[in-house]
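Self-study notes.
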Amino acid sequence: MRATKAVPKGSPIVTLPFTSCLSASSVENTIPPGLEAFWSATPNPTDRLAALLLQEWQLGAKSLWYNYINNLPEVGSRTVSPIHWPREMLAAFPYVSLGVEVLKQQRTWMKLHETLVRSAPAMRDVSYERFVWAMEAVASRAFQGSVDFSSPSFPLDPRVPVAVSSLALAASLVLYLQNSIPDLPMAALCTGIVLGGVFWQRTGQFRGTSCALLPVIDSANHRGTNPSCTLSLPVSAKQFVMVADKSLGVGEEITISYGNRHNDALLQYFGFVEQHNMFDRYVLVQAKDKLEAMLEDDYDKFARLQEDIVQCILNQDVEKLKAKLKKTDRIYLDLTKTAQVILEDSEVAFAQSTLCQGMSSEKKRETLLKLLRFEAVLLDKQTSRFLATHGCSFDDNNELNCWIQLFLQEKKRVLDVVCSNLRKD
């Protein structure tokens, strides 16, 4: 999405009335016909919205959202997303935490699909592939709001992984957009019908949490820092407004922020990676066992720990994976955390190991630095092996190739930055 002419700072680029919306919320009195049992089974508005989107898809050309749905990515076209990777490729991915989270995502979505086809007779012929299509549309294009409307306006919550309501089709463009707007159904532009959830409550506040797909607005790409636009909802106007935060020149990209997202979430749910992402992180799993292997100076034992997790992912053994990967046995190396906070977070792993008893604070810092160096060496070796073994899997998919390599480069960068901060602090 780019500007076709100069845009002054503060100008509205898109206005989108929310009276015409297909939205899902946690409010029980907004149950669409045919989905009553599914609504009872899941209060999550993100899951509900995927069902609503499928309902509209089933209507075909009769749906007010037909043209919008027709412009969504086709089934199976989002091959960059890890949920579509071959199991062997996912299991061998050097950054174990991603494989673990994707395995959880697969299991959750499979159960949701089973619930939907069992509880909604009209959905019994919806394939798992089509269900994933709806969930991914929700995950990658969703906006969420849950606020007190007593204030005159509020910023809309950023896009939420695994969330969505098909909002609006009443887009009023201010003629700044270039060749990116699909045809919107005129009936939706005129009627103001609310199908599904009620986004605006007469009580003047959200009741529960509501999610929405925002046509046109959801075409804007993400920029984690200094996006060119902000999305907000002036309550009195009853419409979403995307406003230019700075002056834009002809051809300049129109961007918004999806929120403070690390690359784990961006790749898993959105299918891209942000270079030099200031919100990125590295999740070090099996921290206690890796710590002890490192203290024994046994790199082979250190590497074998990761192989155990790989086998769990390969065999889709969720229960064994849960037993091996306890939340208390992880260290979250966030770039937004200070070195001191990371040291404090690592105390849990140190406390669980008898080999670390009696260590001074300075010794723990040195030990953590050595642990991260072991992890960096393992990441490098696993990356080389992965690209040599599985590179052919995405040789014909240049986009996937680029994102995978950038993702792994960024994970190495996070380790380097954290180590540098630990040495300086």
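Second protein, same conventions, sequence then structure:
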Amino acid sequence: MIQSGVHRSNHELLNDLWDISRSCPLYRATMSLQRFKHLLQFIRFDDTQTRDKSDRLGPIRYIFDIFTKQLSKYYVPGENLTVDEQLVPFRGRCCFVQYMPSKPAKYGLKFWVLSDVDSRYVLSIDLYTGKKDNNIQKNLATGVVLKLVDRLPKNVKQGRCITFDRYFTDIKLFEALLDRKMTSIGVVEHRRSFLPDELKLCRKNLYSSWFYFLGQYMILSYQAKEKKKPIIILSSSHNQPEVFDDDKKLPCAIHDYNQTKYGVDVIDQCIGNYTVRRINRRWPMYVFFNMIDIAAINSMTIWLCHNSDWNNGRTNTRRVFLSQLSIALTDERNQRHSQQSRLKPKVKLALLSLGYKLRSENVENSKVNVYLNPSKKRCYLCPSKPGRKVRQFCYDCGNNVCLSHSTRITTVTCQRCQEKN
């Protein structure tokens, strides 16, 4: 699945993916097409008899909790963290599908994500499953952020600054984070009751900044455009009215917010470029696909921390990493597979093209015919009806020949050439 995401072929037909003349031979070498179809069709993540029916996340709760607990154990993030929403596209039957017009997909499953800004490492995630008991949840944004933060180890929480957008910004959330020895910064909606009325007014003085201090908090009102409402920032990490000495006189608080708000958006963009998601009608599969995508991003971050000079200066680093990751995950399986007897012809050809050595009883000749004609032609030994069109050709005479009229796997030889030899 990771390999199909690298080549952006996750929406192609499975029959085309398992055709070694059209795509990567890794699929055919790893498992049969029928087995992969059965895995996609019958995979389940819980026992329906012991499932908690009151839990909407019950079909995938067990492995989802295991996955989220492991995220923060293997990486120490930097100073700046960010919390934002992630929308996984899905339009199937699900009672908590969300509509977000600002997102490209519009409809899907909404995840809350806590990530590191500098390294794009996902520290914690949670899935929004809608209202509980058909009641509107109060202080939902505050509860979401605190739930994500409380999953971090105690030594990681202290001294971090969390950035979030206007949906999460609230004075109660800032107080709760200060109790955990964490600072925060975010944009404030104008309808918030704790804002002074004079900070909401549209001012004629362009690029003017008003600062309002209340204990450990700083509220900033910046007039960025004419005849538009000012931008209001609430911060607990700034205690001085600092402004850049340029034409727009941009406050340092807005600059810091702009530099740390994009963490989850970059992760969402990376997942969209090389995703493992396939078309499926079951929403637990999309949660599972998103877990694989996040695990691939985190594994690359940890790998680059230990190998900082790996592919330094290249622009396709993530593509190369995912390609090598898919090969490494299937290497042990293919090593065992290559030593089995009675392998099918196309499986042998796929394993040989990947560089695996077959057992001596499976190899009759050291020559390997890995060259196939780009276009199909009729087998010259088949009758006109039915005439098989194939790409493989005889190594000796060069004529197209089907599997029924050829022998040997490593080197294709037609029956006539075999009789002559």
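Instructor comment on the second fold: Confidence is low (pLDDT under 50) at residues 365-370.
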